[in-house]
Amino acid sequence: MALWSGRFEKSVGSFTQAFGASLPVDKSMYSQDIKGSIAHAKMLAAQGIISRTDLEKIEVGLLEIENQIEQGKFRFDINDEDIHMAIEKTLIEDIGVAGARLHTGRSRNDQVATDTRLHAKDLLHELLTQNCALRGVLYAKARDNFDVIMPGYTHLQHAQPVLFSHHMLAYFWMFTRDFKRLTYALKAADANPLGSAALAGTTYPLDRQMTTELLDFDHPIPNSMDAVSDRDYLLDLEYACSVSMMHLSRLCEEIILWSSTEFGFITLSDSFATGSSIMPQKKNPDFAELTRGKMGRVVGDLVALLVTMKSLPLAYNKDLQECKEGAMDAAKTLHDCMVCMEGMIKTMELHVPEMRAAAGKGFTAATDVADYLAKKGMPFRQAHEVVGNLVLYCEKHHKGLEDLTLDEFREASELFEEDIVSSLDLEKIVRARKTYGGTGHDAVKVQMEEAKQVLNADKASIGYVAQPLL
């Protein structure tokens, strides 16, 4: 019999009972539900609404239920609808009338809102921790391969030579922005709805500040109707996950390209590749491809929640039951993809000679040749035209800029002198980018130091504890 059955003459049918149940999804929130119930009971006792004896029985009973769940001894019944009813029904069966007093001054509406916020906070702490771990590996890969030169691309065509460390740090900063978005989502979730009851508050003298402190929320939500119906923080969580998955998909695409025969820049560890059932030679970047593909799943979670929330009237509606699963899925997917990426980056082998050789192909020095003329006094737009003609000449004669003689250069412009040959050196081209944020060695050293400081500050802000690589 349902705990709300007093008003009904007939029970819900077995199909509709299962259709309306959220227990398969929200049973993972058992610890948050028990934590919220203990805080509520302590507040009720402090306010003289229940006795200290009842509080002791409730707390002991809830902790025993938690222990049973963790040991796999708790029997979940789909007829209980959700984790909240499952725990409360068992508590009443175990300790009697004291358990029936737990729900005083509380509705499932503020209860589920509390549990969902607590669960979101826990998920976000895990994501923030793994974000730091991933950025740590990106930083280390950049540091350990600081001087490696590779081609930089625009439109997937050779553009200018860059340091591999500069390329890795570009992703470091993307994931740093993701950290900020996840932190914002954490702050959005960090508000206490408990005490709002169904939608209008309650006549009991509840101390919402007390439960706020017990549950480690930042503040109580000031409007009871908003408190029970708000799921914006889940949208924030799923948006942050979606953007981070987009960044992962970009990195995955490059890993897939770099590991191909056409590029040959890296070899993935056997731990992060698979073979073919028919082609013996194949080593496929399956896990990078899977991570790239999972972005659509997470974006789907975000869109699904947006559509679910669209046009919902105040206050609570059963539609909100659909909010939890997508948030859980988005968080777990991002977490697992970051763990996978951490391992891929940490273990991939760079093919340094191939990367450097590729950096010199595709006329990547062309901009520097134009700059050479501009520094000699030629307007840059005119220099751009001259070098464009040189590139066209090279293509027609199957040459690179480095293959041209001084006479061939001077046919394009009398401003070219013997020093043009040394100006085509990849090392010099890269080192010349000294401006803040550039790919020059000195600029990247500054960037590395800044990245280290930012990462250390972010780790400190969440009490980071290193996680073993799975």
List keywords for this structure.
elongated, 3 domains, Ribonucleotide Reductase Protein R1, domain 1, Fumarase C, Chain A, domain 2, Fumarase C, Chain B, domain 1, 470 residues, 6 strands, two-stranded antiparallel sheet, mainly alpha, 20 helices, two-stranded parallel ribbon
Mean pLDDT: 96
Q: Tell me, what is the CATH class of the largest domain?
A: Mainly Alpha
CATH architecture of the largest domain: Up-down Bundle
- How many structural domains? 3
Largest sheet entry:
2 strands, antiparallel
Strand percentage: under 5%
Describe the model:
With 470 residues, the protein is mainly α. The protein has three domains: 16-104, Orthogonal Bundle (Fumarase C, Chain B, domain 1); 109-357 and 449-462, Fumarase C, Chain A, domain 2 (Up-down Bundle), CATH 1.20.200; 358-448, Orthogonal Bundle (Ribonucleotide Reductase Protein R1, domain 1). The protein contains 20 helices and six strands. It has helices at residues 14-20, 23-26, 30-46, 52-70, 83-95, 97-100, 108-144, 164-189, 208-214, 224-229, 232-258, 286-309, 323-347, 352-359, 366-375, 380-396, 406-412, 420-423, 426-431, 441-462; strands at 149-154, 157-163, 191-192, 219-220, 266-267, 349-350. The chain has a two-stranded antiparallel sheet. Strands 3-4 form a two-stranded parallel sheet. Helix 4 (52-70) packs across helix 5, helix 7 packs antiparallel against helix 8 and helix 11 (232-258) runs antiparallel to helix 12 (286-309). The longest helix is centred in the N-terminal third of the chain and has 37 residues, at 108-144. The radius of gyration is 30 Å and the shape is elongated. One of its GO terms (biological process) is L-arginine biosynthetic process via ornithine.
